[in-house]
Amino acid sequence: MKLPRQFFKPLAIGAPEPLKELPVNLERMIHFLPPHIEKMRAKVPDMIPKVDVILGNLEDAIPADQKQAARAGFIEMARDNDFGSTGLWTRINCLNSPWVFDDITEIVREVGNKLDVIMLPKVEGPWDIYYLDQLLAQLEARYEVKKPILIHAILETAEGVNNVVDIATASPRMHGMSLGPADLAASRGMKTTRVGGGHPAYGILADSDGSQGKRDFYQQDLWHFTVAKMVDACSAAGIKAFYGPFGDFSDLEACEAQFRNAFLLGCAGAWSLHPSQIGIAKTVFSPDPDEVKFALRILEGMPDGTGAVMIDGKMQDDATWKQAKVIADLARIVAEKDPDTAEKYGL
Ligand code: GLV
Ligand code: MG
Q: What angle do CA 156, 75, 248 make, to 5 degrees?
């Protein structure tokens, strides 16, 4: 374990100072693009104002013979566009792949000053973060990158889930983590071929009333345990938790339900793999206007955050003040970006 006084020191001479706090950014959806496809790159200027984060995907879903084209396409789209307040991320290939070294070195060399976050797949433990952390510091120094490039881990192996707390606290470069339900299902030996979401056979059967009639069956959330564990690890470390992909583009309702569970449990956003999921994530990961109005009443009713008051028959105290502040703080960030929603919030 590194000494606390060493933790925030740059890992290479000339690398930018590590951040003590994460930048406050709205990241309701991380929108995935396959950068080897020219038609997709051409959509980037239109996409920038519509999403919170654009991610150029270099890993799974990119064919092996297109890996270099995807990397080159990402560098091109990073260079050719002004992203403003929209985040620019890339998902690199995993650390034992033949492509990852060039992914990291070429991207930092070419567009290190535009890149906000590197998403690292299949993180097994803090050692994966230490490696990328050190390499990024060397490259930042070498190519005069001005602000630290952050790391976002995908939690998608059984070993990674076991080590989630150590991953979350491995470096000041940690931005957050996403659940990767497809790889995680495979790694754990779960018996599902779906990418995220529920499974009709995973649930609870209501008690029998002895009549032999049809008993109710309630489907349960396969991901509840892991999302909750990830949220605890991330929140304790001061970083952000995200739900990952929802693969059934034909079932927008199920996507919304899965995203909403993640939001309510503490996640900041989810991936959008298809344009139809952007609006869902935008709505779900922005607090509900009625909740925001109620939260603002709690904050007004308890100006110094202590004591107890009744609002609409509901007891409020220091703890509910803190809950209200979570919602109101997020609402203010959403309102800043989105004037229509600001109006709905009364902000
Ligand atoms: C995402 O990468 C997943 O494996 O679900
Ligand atoms: Mg994966």
A: 40
Residue 112 tokens read as: 């290190």
Residues 6+ apart with CB under 8 A from 87: 25, 27, 30, 52, 53, 54, 116, 117
- The half-sphere exposure of 77 on its side-chain side, counting CA atoms within 13 A, is 29
Instruction: Specify whether the CB–CB gap between 9 and 251 falls below 8 A.
Output: no
Hey, whose CA ends up nearest to atom 2 of ligand 1?
180
Query: What pLDDT, in 10s, does the model give residues 300-339?
Result: 999 999 999 999 999 999 999 999 999 999 999 999 999 9
Measured CA to CA in angstroms, residue 174 lies from 89, 132, 244 at distances of 14, 11, 17
Structural domains present in the chain: 4-205+219-285 (3.20.20.60), 291-345 (no CATH)
Ligand 1 in reach of 182 Cβ (< 6 A):
yes
Cα–Cα distance measured from residue 52 to residue 48, given in angstroms and rounded to the nearest whole number: 8
* Mean per-residue pLDDT, 98-126: 98
The per-residue pLDDT for range 19-69, each reduced to its tens digit, is: 999 999 999 999 999 999 999 999 999 999 999 999 999 999 999 999 999
- Return the ligand 1 atom nearest residue 154 CA: 2
CA–CA distance, 64 with 74 (Å, rounded to integer) = 16
